[in-house]
What does this fold into?
Amino acid sequence: MLSRRVIVCLDVAGGRVVKGVQFEALRDVGDPVVLAERYEREGADEIVFLDISASAEERTTLLDLARRTAERLFVPLTIGGGIRTVDDVGRALRAGADKTSVNSAAIERPEILTEAADRFGAQCVVASIDARRDGEGWRVYSRGGRQATGLDAVEWARECVSRGAGEIMLTSIDRDGARTGYDLALTRAVADAVNVPVIASGGAGSAEHVLDALGAGRADAALVAGILHDGVTSVSEIKALLAANGVPVRRAA
It folds into this structure.
């Protein structure tokens, strides 16, 4: 069985790592390069670097900061935020990213997923989906969770994969920063609908919540942020709990 991944997310605004609730009320939690190195030492399988204001401000991602972060890491790095064209994907990869996360640009022009996968390989293309509960289903939002699209989250995930995405990063806006646990129903619905890895995101409040996402939620990986920044738990503690419950994980070196 493939190892399940614990992925640490660094949301960056103004060159600093920030964290909020439902994408709002952001607070400064530290330097991105320092935090990336720390989480790698603790055993993070991957780091996700998201420039959370790039799309809303209609600018490209902060490649210099991404480059400095990538130079210090040995685990895979995903860069997202402000990726609008295939050339942007190429620039992010040249800056040191192993993968790029595409959200708003894919909603506005889905062909970018196919073009990027054709040029760089599907393994480099992560479709990032921000979803909010709407009745019995979930709707997709763009522009950092600010703009409703009308797209059904599960159907959009299927389309992203059909167009070339090699992975889905699925964030519950409702759960983001709330620490009440991942939206397991949303995660499970998308995981059952696609044949690529799904990363659960939004809502982790404890190591047990990560276990739930990888178990009942059927996710291949779990994204964590605030509970690590605030010292509620650590990557090593999360992995110890996963291993104790029979979840295959890569242990810290």
Observations:
- The radius of gyration is 16 Å.
- The first strand starts at residue 5 and ends at 13.
- The chain has a mean pLDDT of 91.
